[in-house]
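ERR on first pass: missing label on line 2. Operator R.T. fixed the label and resubmitted. Corrected input:
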Amino acid sequence: MIRFFLAISLVCSIFLSFACVQKGGNGTTADTGDTIKVGVYGDLTGQTSSFGQSTKNGIELAVEEINNASGVNGKKIQLIVEDDQGRPEQAKTVVSKLINQDKVQAVLGEVASTNSLAAAPVAQEAKIPMISPSSTNPKVTEVGDYISRVCFIDPFQGSVMAKFASNTLKAKTAAILGDVNSDYSKGLTQFFEEEFTKLGGRVVTKEAYTQTDPDFKGQLTKIRNLNPDVIYIPGYYGQVGIIARQARELGMNQPLLGGDGWDSPELWKLGGDSLKNAYISNHYSAENPAPEIQNFVNAYKAKFGVVPDSLAALAYDAAKVLADAIKRAGGTDSAKLRDAINATKNFSGVTGTISLDANRNAVKPAVVLELNPSAGAFKYKETIAPEGSATTAPSSNSASGANTNSSANANTVANANSMPAGNAANR
Amino acid sequence: MDTFVQQLINGLTIGSIYALIALGYTMVYGILRLINFAHGDIYMVGAYAGFMIATSAGFAANPSAFGFVVTLIGSMAIAAAIGMAIERFAYRPVRKYSKMTTLITAIGMSLFIEYLFVFIFSGTPRSFPELLPSQNVTLFGNATISTSQILIFLVSIALMVLLQWIIYKTKIGKAMRAVSYNINSAKLMGINTDFVIAFTFALGSALAAAGGVLTAQYNPKIEPLMGIMTGLKAFVAAVLGGIGNIPGAVLGGLLIGAAETLVVGYGSYVGIPSTYRDAVAFAILILVLLLRPAGLLGSNVQEKV
Amino acid sequence: MSTWLRNFVAAAVIIAILYVINAMMSSTGFFGIGIDDYQARLLVFIAINIILAVSLNLINGITGQFSIGHAGFMAVGAYASAYFTVTYGRAVESAFGFLGETAASSVVLIVAIVIGALVAALMGLIVGIPSLRLKGDYLAIVTLGFAEIIRIVILNIEAVGGATGYQVPGYANFLWVGIFAVITIVVIHNIAKSDAGRALVSIREDELAAEAMGVNTTRYKVTSFVIGSAFAGVAGVLFAHYNKFLSTNDFQFIKSFEIIIMIVIGGMGSITGAILGAIIVTLLPELLRQLPDIQVAGATFRFADLRLVIFALILILTMILRPQGILGTREFGLNWLKRPMRTPEGKSPTGDDGGVPIAQQAEARHLESEEDKNA
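pass 2 clean. output:
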């Protein structure tokens, strides 16, 4: 037994001798030569791999554009992509690898808040800035000042739809059908309910499903019996398409509401015509005729063969924000880069004008889009801006809010273009 | 009342799919005493095979009943071939080893198929083309049944009747029954057991693939990991009905489907949230194995020393 | 030297080595030499996986039962202890503050480990008593089902984070994880070497014969199940407090399968085999990440994405070509566990069975002799 242990120890020490590094340095990451290394992590082969792939694609497109335009401060960006299979433990491991082995100077990721929450402490401790393109749970940025995001957070998005339901659709009762496995879905459910109740509505029931459920008629039948004015389904497109179908089959024709998790080209194939009379809150509208957005959509389509979904757009913006911050910081010195990222104000991205607030969350308006299944596209409906920002008048919640925003709001140039409701730009 | 009927219809629809898959489990177990873990993944393979056939042969663009039939039969054939290949290359070499080894091989096979498909097709869910239009038929009150559900019932019943005919009215069926009774005696009687085993796998896989295509018609989302849960529940169904017993598999499948949907529909009245749906099947399994391990229709076989 | 002294010195040496490695993982390193965070993480995971593999080996390899829900017990231990440290950790630490900071946090960790182990053992008892009446295949599905139910239940408990995840204070470091890995190895080894271990092996080889010889099979099976689950719980506690974050996504089917792969590759009756399997399974995916992408017909092809396919393939090939794994039931180095009895009609003159357990040999020979009769 002892011989065995000594043998193992010998083997381990040989192994470890390769692993040893000099420690005790001051931990700042200097620029390594003439490329800037950026780490990307996401789910590329697991159950939510479509999200990870979209994110990776968006970032790759952005970096390609940046590098073709002679890089940042003359240096090209090199992407190092790792797969975490959607498992938080692996998310932490790959970020640790990216930071410690590959010596990246910044990290982009992840989509699922659970994975971002797992990995963020590693970046924070190592003092490497991390920008999440699409994690919406408020806790993610609470990890520390090196963690930021370019999307709005659940509390905002949940309340957006509640406001729309109550003020525009004049709904008095609502049912919520959420994904129990998804932190995103739970967050939206919670904040929708809060806001909707505050505005005088009543949530008649909250049902839940899991992503592996083969059908949803059980839950939908229960909802049908209560006959709510609207049904809020804050889940992902994979299930939402079927839910919409089955709801219509059961004769339920009330408006269906959702969030940015619906946004994917596959949604139309899964849901078909049952997606009429449905609305979602989203970051952007691909049919927004503003040239930056159309250029992005066309470039993405040319490179990847599909129309970008909101995750790809957010990832694109995250990469561009990072590049912009590197330029402003004059390098990738970690403290300066962090400050530059956190100071991002009025950055014009395809998902809106991005400004990071004191909590390093992006403050930007959400758009409410109506689904148009026959065109396989979203139709712009209205814009709802964050409360309390200096730009919004109290009545900005109404359907004509877009007007109020653009006049009072110096930074919503993009929104000004999206005003005309019936504008369905050709793709 | 009509809600209850609605829930029951939904449950029996899912149950028919479980029944189709459970038949494959029960047949293979009857013959080889092996739980083919990879069987649930054959269901997924069938759905993808159907998807490939439908999109490449152009049926997706021009939906028709003919297209549906060709897709169904085509995917059943492909799945049968794959099932036989799995048996030949992965299970036959380990047949002579202990049960644990074969079970581990089956688990490995299941993982292999799942992640191979993730690698090839990417984990993104795809949408199975709608080959037959789906409409709702109102039965009474608020209870509706859609044509795709009716299709599932009809095709499942047809296939099960076909299976019964094969097993009880053909020579190969007689051989299958003989091998499931006692494999060594069957060999002594001159039956080519290897061929019978291969045939059983083919038959079971074809049924699972049919289940896959039918489900994809009803719920168009297909993704590489869709077979895991469904396969496990179908296994529970086979055990519930009495593993090795063919009518039992059908009964078990329908019961599990109904139980699941009723728990989702009414469970909240007894404090079970609808998200415990998957736990229902496992709970049933545990109860069956504790109280009546032979299953509902199975017979208690004493172990001889 | 007396045995007692020898063991003491050995323990001291081992702890010293672990301490040095642990120091190397800290930010200042050990006299300037250190291990970076990523590799440190891998080492810790190797140790945790060793605990998992060795404990599962007790159930699957030595007793011959088939449990494929080990991740469930790990989860139970992890979450139970995490709840304790999150809610009461501070209080306990200040209560023991008079011992000094490291000692106080060690106390918290030890209490957490005890809690995790007990809860996991309890779960093992609940799962084991009804299930161990069942045979191989059924037991496998039932354990799988239980692990899933456990996971679904935990997922629905908001107090431990639900779908968002649970943040856990970091009381564990490599030193602790390493010490417990060693403890696990020593304990399981001693069990296997003892009379009780012989009884377990006899249950594996031929349960009916063991029962006939007066071995209370049910009691032994349940006991080994409970002990195995308790250690899985310990692994869970250490994982929770090192990773500082818990999510039910880390405890799905695939985790249980990974542990199974570890012991299968290493050899199911062998403790050193389990250790070897744990090392291979932890390091292999990371090695695959290092491989460069290859271009095939215009599409980039990443080896890292094929990780699980490769694992599954290794599992299948191992079963086909060498079902006893690398070490079979033998141990590396010392012959402390007697090989199965040689039979008079062994194939090779020395009766060397290559580490294949009797039950497997018996079936192979049975079928072969059948075919000989038919020929």
